[in-house]
Amino acid sequence: MPDAARRLKSLAEQLLGAPLPVRIRAWDGSEAGPPGAPTLVVRNRRALRRLMWKPGELGLARAWVAGDLDVEGDLYAALDRLAGFIWQREEDARTLRESLRDPEFRSAARSLIGLAAPFLPPSPPQEEMRRRGTLHLHTKGSDRQAISHHYDVGNDFYELVLGPSMVYSCAYWESEDSTLENAQRDKLELISRKLDLKPGMRLLDVGCGWGSMAIHAAREHGVTVVGVTLSQEQAAYGRKRIAEEGLTDRIEIRVQDYRDVRDGPYDAISSIGMAEHVGAERYLEYAHDLHALLKPGGRLLNHQIARRPQADESSYTVDDFIDAYVFPGGELAPVGSTVGLLERAGFEVRDVEAIREHYALTLRRWVANLEAHWKEGQRLTSPGRARIWRLYMAASALAFEHNHIGVNQVLAVKTSEVGASGMPLRARDWN
């Protein structure tokens, strides 16, 4: 009689020291676990081998991307229930090391190894970033490699997920009933107002994506724009959109590292969802570079995801799944650290707006877009890549909802030598 699911449930609970909060369906068709709960589908023994060779998040990620693991039912509910077991940190690692001394724990581990036989290490899925040892040094070459891994996966795929706005950052919602397109338009307009864009001004859009901010600023506010990206596919798509809008005389899209921009000064700079790629070691350099590119009185709008601060910042490690499959070399910092570094570079920080709930709403819409066109999404990129995007966007939505991460718009000014900021006496006149 098939019993792999019952054995898996029992072994998992012994190893984890807690009841398994989801139902399990194993490769032999057997099921075990709480009725009505989301079902974790273990399609084959290879899923177990991935977990045994890479315990924790990376092993689970590899099994998910390869299709060895799946979820039936509400993906958000499944991730919510499994969150405590998936995202293990140093304290969990210490607990595991202590458990290895327990005879019952070692017996359960041996049984799991037997169930996973033959116990050979499976190759990582092809979608995993192949390490070259320099990603977290954030050289120009490694940043170009990381950006290409994330963004050069097909513009058609991003159109399917993001919708017509082609904006890959947190939207700004008037209400949960708003459309994604309206919310993204409102975000671009909010940024334009914070930067106080006016006809004749020059805007530098750092990490310009597919050109949405550049088009909005030029069309709605009469500015000239230089947008820089490291993605060849983004640049080609953005240039095509700009030509269709008749704005080629007002917008230039360059494939260029922000560190190589030399044609300042600019009246304003927007950096929307780009600074997460800069890295802690390079962040002060990034802030100095943008400060140098602005005119006195010029404004910077830095729109950036942030993590919660830790008691011991020296022990912070990047997320294994995100680093291997989504944003290689990406790093999140607490908003206080970001503000401090901008100020050290000479900026005067004038406003910080936290909008994390808005990102949760945005991500849920992107997931819904992908799920509604699932077969097409797999065709446009790969089944593994589509699975990566679905998992990371759903998990990120929950992370924003539970305040594990946030997103902030930081408005900073290059104050003139005489102390003039050009800011209105009453803040937030852009609302």
TrEMBL record:
<dbReference type="InterPro" id="IPR050723">
    <property type="entry name" value="CFA/CMAS"/>
</dbReference>
<dbReference type="Pfam" id="PF02353">
    <property type="entry name" value="CMAS"/>
</dbReference>
<keyword id="KW-0808">Transferase</keyword>
<keyword id="KW-0489">Methyltransferase</keyword>
<comment type="similarity">
    <text>Belongs to the CFA/CMAS family.</text>
</comment>
<dbReference type="InterPro" id="IPR029063">
    <property type="entry name" value="SAM-dependent_MTases_sf"/>
</dbReference>
<dbReference type="InterPro" id="IPR003333">
    <property type="entry name" value="CMAS"/>
</dbReference>
<keyword id="KW-0949">S-adenosyl-L-methionine</keyword>
<dbReference type="InterPro" id="IPR020803">
    <property type="entry name" value="MeTfrase_dom"/>
</dbReference>
<protein>
    <submittedName>
        <fullName>Cyclopropane-fatty-acyl-phospholipid synthase family protein</fullName>
    </submittedName>
</protein>
<keyword id="KW-0443">Lipid metabolism</keyword>
<feature type="domain" description="Polyketide synthase-like methyltransferase">
    <location>
        <begin position="157"/>
        <end position="398"/>
    </location>
</feature>
